[in-house]
Amino acid sequence: MVPVIEVEALTRSFGPIRAVDGVTFQVYEGEVFGLLGPNGAGKTTTVRLLNGVLKASGGRARVLGIDPAADGCALRRRTGVLTETPSLYERLTARENLLLFGALYGIPEADLPRRVDRMLEWFELAERAEDRVGNFSKGMKQRLALARALLHEPPLLFLDEPTAGLDPEAARQVTDLIRQLSHQEGRTVFLCTHNLPEAQHLCDRVAVMDRGRLLAIGTLEELSRSLWGGFQVEVDFLEPPAVPVADALRLLPDVTDVRSEPLRLTVRVTGEATIPAVVEALVRQGARILRVSPRQPSLEEIYFEIRKEAQP
Ligand SMILES: Nc1ncnc2c1ncn2[C@@H]1O[C@H](COP(=O)(O)OP(=O)(O)OP(=O)(O)O)[C@@H](O)[C@H]1O
Ligand SMILES: [Mg+2]
Predict the structure, then answer these.
(1) Distance 190 CA to ligand 2 centre (A)
(2) Whose CA is closest to atom 12 on ligand 1?
(3) Residue nearest to atom 31 of ligand 1 (CA)
(4) Residue 257 and residue 180 share a domain
């Protein structure tokens, strides 16, 4: 795995506020990396540090092999950035905006009109290409800002809440596009979002940040294992068991938790080797099992557990 972003003890203060407080992580080529956390956690500040828009107060960062603080201009030619509040030229048309930014990015003049057309088509803005951006809806502006971020075909994209304010269809288009960019085109995506189902759908790994600090980082499976140990299986019954079956399971070694519903047990075990003993104990008690399946906790459950454990 090739690291595209390497951050070590990165820190940025605004007066007494430590917006980013000694953060260390890596992002690998081709992955979708999600940065999650409540309002004011330091996500946007991190993105700004990684793009060289802000200077760090301490620590180190390398992005595509470049030190963002030293050479932000060179870096921004190779990254696409969608900021929280994209600034577009409201008095210019959609096409003029893209032509202008394309020229700033250094896209060759011969290529530019064709690329702009393609982006306008892709984001379904072709019909409105000659309209002033000031008259666009929020979602249309967001799509245009995304088009702008992708115009120079950067290998690394920073997307700060890319679907905020979009209608469900447009949000789906954007998430499909992000998947396509990463899975088919091998680009790396650094995503900040509050939308946990979206992050679960998109991200290969996530990090949870709060008050400038990283609370946890990893794949869903890694996070779930480190929070609860082992993994969960769900046992579904054909009919509710005639006797309470959960207590016998709690006595088994390596069973760490059992939750009981009429037609389902959720059992946490330390390893796969325990599952046959669980099934056996249930069958011995007369339970009629329909199905035994592994259960992966949702990112939402994981997120709230991480936040709960971090409470002072
Ligand atoms: N330019 C600035 N001047 C002063 N304080 C700032 C500045 N930028 C950010 N901060 C502070 O840094 C902290 C982190 O802000 P940041 O915007 O990075 O949070 P965030 O995780 O992106 O939040 P949100 O989910 O609301 O977008 C906040 O306390 C914020 O007030
Ligand atoms: Mg933010």
Answers:
(1) 13
(2) 19
(3) 40
(4) no
